[in-house]
Amino acid sequence: MKTARSKKTAAGWIAGVCVLLAAAPALTGCSTDSDSTKSKGQDGSASAAPTASTGADAEPTPSPKGRPGGQSTVQEAVATWVTGVVQDRPEKACLVMATAATGGSPAKPNTAAMCGGDTPEARQMKQQIHRLHASFAPAQPKNPPTVKVAKVPVAEKKATVDGEQITVDGQTLKAIVLSNSTGVKEDELGIRVEAAVVGGRWYVTDLGLSVG
């Protein structure tokens, strides 16, 4: 089984997944020629309006003033991130991402300056999200896509959402990735999106992908 897990930075954990996609010929994604207009309308616009299911386990948190990223529930954070990837809008996805806490280093959310900037890290982030779009986008996505995330358990302000608990226009994310692949069986593919509360807001902190 090939597995992609988190790296040190938020840009790094997406890069790790892209490395796995590139190493598995049966999977589509992370190619430089992905169709960036696949999830957009005929006029090229791509407004975001994700829909997320909510519940008691979502642990809503207050919205700090002046903070552009993060969401009030785990469902909203994951839905916003998936929507950004499906629409091929790297900055939108970037703003709801954070580096998970490791060892003595606290979790750190991406900033608007980083996501909208032109630094090497920002360029890497945009490139990897653009490439991941090829695997996450359904054949004919709505504009904007309807993204729903099921209620999941929350423990210590962290949660994990399986690829079968996320739907894009009525299809599970796992089914979409499978449809964009060849020769991969349903029981061979695993997708997990991890999220956590950072500074009172929910952010996507990791993406796990396993094949085989």
TrEMBL record:
The keyword Signal applies. Residues 43-58 have a biased composition (Low complexity). This is Lipoprotein. PROSITE patterns: PROKAR_LIPOPROTEIN. It comes from Streptomyces antimycoticus. Keywords: Signal. Residues 1-28 form the signal peptide. Residues 29-72 are annotated as: Disordered. It comes from the Bacteria.
